[in-house]
């Protein structure tokens, strides 16, 4: 099965990672506790967690919610295998069924699960690009597809510290800004 929403989000994270320089890796991110390296470790770990939930093997080597910030090698060497594992795992999922997830909600309808993995990849692509001072990779078309997924899964996750409280709209921006605010991110955030 080709999950277009997941493929699109994976491309965003892949491209945002490829654009990074060595100087970018220690920059602060919209995830106030983490730098770029830690966000990449978290994002890769999350994709591996989705893959492991589906396949029963190959989970993250470290806790995605306690990233070490120590990166040996190129950032793409961390991110690419995780994206490939996630895509391969989701390719085995029946779109009409349910599939296990690493989320507290457990098994979800397949489309929601793929959307949740896509949401994670896309928002962290935005985090990394924003931290590096690059334009947002998250477009309104993809954000409009991710927003219903976010509304379906995020509220219980806020209790686990996975997302900050929703920000009030300032009336600017399209679906991407709406999605970012819903996830507790300021769409106008710039690296200090």
In words, what does this structure look like?
The protein is mainly alpha-helical and 192 residues long. It has a single domain (4-138), classed as Four Helix Bundle (Hemerythrin (Met), subunit A). Helix content is 52%, strand content 2%. The chain has helices at residues 4-18, 36-55, 75-90, 110-131, 140-158, 175-182; strands spanning 98-99, 108-109. Strands 1-2 form a two-stranded antiparallel ribbon. Strand 1 and strand 2 (108-109) form a beta hairpin. Helix 4 (110-131) packs across helix 5 (140-158). The longest helix has 22 residues, at 110-131. It is globular and about 45 Å long. 41% of the residues are buried. The mean pLDDT is 94.
CATH homologous superfamily name?
dinb family like domain
β-strand percent reads under 5%
Remind me, CATH topology? Answer: Four Helix Bundle (Hemerythrin (Met), subunit A)
By DSSP (H or I, 4+ residues per run), the number of helices equals 6
**What is the CATH domain class?**
Mainly Alpha
Q: Quaternary state, please?
A: single chain
Mean pLDDT: 94
Reported CATH architecture:
Up-down Bundle
Q: Radius of gyration, rounded?
A: 15 Å
What is the approximate shape?
globular
Low-confidence stretches: none
* End-to-end gap: 42 Å
* Main sheet specs: 2 strands, antiparallel
Order of helices and strands: HHHEEHHH
Number of domains: 1
Q: Share of helix among residues?
A: 40-55%
